[in-house]
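Sat 14:20. Reprocessing the chain from the morning session after the first attempt stalled halfway. Input below, unchanged.
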Amino acid sequence: MQGEMSGCAVRPYLQQRPLTIRRPGFLREMRGSELAQADQLLQAAFGGPDEAALVRRLRADRALAGEQVLPFEDRIVGYAALSEMRSPQGWLCLAPIAIAPDFQGFGHGRRMVGMLAEWARRSGVFLVVLGDPAFYRRCGFSSERAAKLRAPYPASHLLLAGPGDAVPEETLEYPRAFG
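Finished this time. Tokens:
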């Protein structure tokens, strides 16, 4: 059967030769021509329009510091938004992060988030994320360093990456688009 191997669906990035996997390219800045692809990816990854609508609001508010994508052939299979926090000045928020459903489970999200955490450390920028602590710790974020941050979201899921090893005491104000 085309599309199946040993009763398992073949992922689109598997070549016809067994055990040969083509990998996505390197994380890069999103191009303007990829806006629609990013919107479709966010909807597919999150199972609805909410995250794509959030990114459109962030763009409209000019709150995005950058949008990173993971390319594969003629499409994008990974997406990450970096937004400027209203406070503290110079801090960024990582949200949303998405991997195409057919590329999930292969470490692409971990690699993408890990690269962004390392970028934050090396560039001297504090980067906060709200999410699964076990996943983000493996990517270089620290919940211990976020322990004294005050945020409108659950502290148990707040993590920090960036320079040094201090535990900053700050009140976080997210971009207005987050509501």
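The first strand starts at residue 4 and ends at 5.
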